[in-house]
From TrEMBL:
This is NAD kinase.
Length: 124
């Protein structure tokens, strides 16, 4: 039986998402950062780059294919299928970590912030 291919996108929660989780809202985080004379512009830029990369991956997947998505913290509970194509949006460490949970499935690494890291696994 031939199944329609499934692309599984793996990513890590961004710094902005983590800050919102801790502070409640992005507005509250910005207020606290401003009070401490700290800029969150770099955090926002990295979040936007990751969001653009995730959108680009999603738009590149054919509409007839199945899709899955998993955050890094949920990898140990996610069931990968033998025919999955795994796309890792993040740094090399995430790509290497994902490989521990796979059994021969192909992995495509996407660096959402190219040029900022020393990676060799996720160079695109």
């Amino acid at each position: 039986m031939s199944l329609v291919p499934r692309v599984v996108v793996v990513h890590r929660r961004t710094e902005r998402e983590q800050i919102v989780r801790e502070r409640g809202t992005w507005g509250q985080a910005k207020f606290q950062a401003k009070a401490a004379s700290v800029s969150l512009s770099a955090v926002e830029a990295r979040h936007s780059a990751t969001d653009r990369a995730l959108q680009a991956v999603s738009s590149a997947v054919p509409g007839t294919w199945r899709r899955g998505a998993v955050e890094r913290e949920d990898l140990d509970r996610f069931l990968f299928e033998p025919e999955d194509i795994v796309v890792v949006v993040g740094q090399d460490g995430l790509a290497a970590n994902v490989a521990k949970y796979l059994s021969g499935q192909p992995v495509i690494g996407i660096d959402p912030n190219p040029g900022t890291g020393l990676g060799v696994l996720a160079r695109h």
